[in-house]
Description:
- The protein is mainly α.
- It is built from 19 helices and no strands.
- It comes from Candidatus Nitrosotalea okcheonensis.
Amino acid sequence: MMEKLSIKEKLAELRRTDEDLLYFIAFLYALSTGEVGSVEMIKSGQSSGYGRYSNSFKEVFRLGVGWGYGLARSCEMIAAKIKDNADPLKQLLVKLSQVIRLGDELKVFFTDEMAFAIHTFTIRYERNLETQKLFLEMFYTISSTASFMIAANSIMAMLMGSSNSESVFTMSFVGVIVSMGSFIVIMYMIFPKDRLASGKHSKTQKFRMSLFAALGVGISIGVVLTLTNMVPLTLVVVIAVAPLFIPGFLAKRLETELRGNDEWYPPFIRHFGEIYTMVGSMGQSLDAVLRSNFGPLQKQIVAFKNRVKNRIDPEICFEIFSMEAGTSVIESGNTIMSRALLKGSDMNQVGNKVAEISAKLNELRSKRMQTSRTFETIIIVLHGLTMAIFGLMSTLIEVFHTLLSTVPVSNQAFTLSPIDPNFIHMMLPIVILVTSTINALAVKVGQGGLFKTVWFNIAMLTALGGITMYGTTAALSQFLTHHILDTYAPSVAAGTLPGIGSGT
Length: 504
């Protein structure tokens, strides 16, 4: 019972590690620097768009202002509906009710809450990273033993005289794939959800078109090569999947661009807040800010300045800036900055706090990327070794089948039942494609970020696996043929095999 409770608490803690709460408190902090009242803050918070946190403020405003219960009493009523006492939303509402009832300054309260939120988020994220390392180590341990399990089951089926050794191989392979797929689902549920793209990026349509075109071309090439038997099936998979490198490279380049924008956003927004506080004009502030260079974000900042100079509404300017930058970090930061600008907040303090949050998120994601790169390297090595083992197994099965089909061998202990080599040859492309997909998904779940880059991982691992398996099969086929079949050729011709017992 205690073990079940600890797992439940662990999953609940992992789910609470979200960025919405962090940005919601930052949003309230930004409003508090403008010396707004509690009614105005609750009213603005209900339409801030932070999921259940905004919805809770909507309920507080409805009960406190609409029904006349008072904001302090409403906060306590909404908090009482939340059963989990460790829920940060419940704690926030209870503390906010006391601040409103006592008439304390909201700015002081949310300054402390902001510092506590950043500290708590950092601790929970780093704790999740430790859990992630453990799960990734478990995955590549499972991956390294999967091929040996399949080979052992297949060999035992042949040695024990199974009537259908092919079904044993198929069931072993399906069982391993299902177990590894289930493990990936668990990792996806537990690992932090790092939202990189905002979903409004202009290059999304271009990626979709390239992906559909690559899939169509790859399937067509694969069907033609399979029907014509121009190349071995293991190389057919490599050639058919090769077009996926195009959308994969596009996704990798887009992810690099988005991460670059995130890296340059904190110094820009901090500098902008400082200058705006002194100048009081967005246009002049951006002129001063652009004397510095902000790398890949420079183009979007120049466009942002031009819209401001043309007297477009500041909120619309920030929104278009977020769409062009395309990242969730910039979108969340710009939302806070635009609302704070309209409410007359202290832009120096707001800019510093938004920059601090953005820099902290970038730092934590960089730590995750470092861990995932190590995991990716291990998976690439293990994937190549796994495909080599499958290639060796297929060659041994072919030689074994050739040897036993010439002379039926049996004794009183067991009856040999070799797997049909044609069946293995048909299964090898499926093994390459499915195993590469499983490993690619595991690598992407560990990396986080833009999920579109999984197509690059699939193409890379499939090409590596197919080439490795073909090379292993080609090299070992000649070696084993010369050293086994040629060695036993005289015995085969005589109708006996030495060392196997009584032959018939």
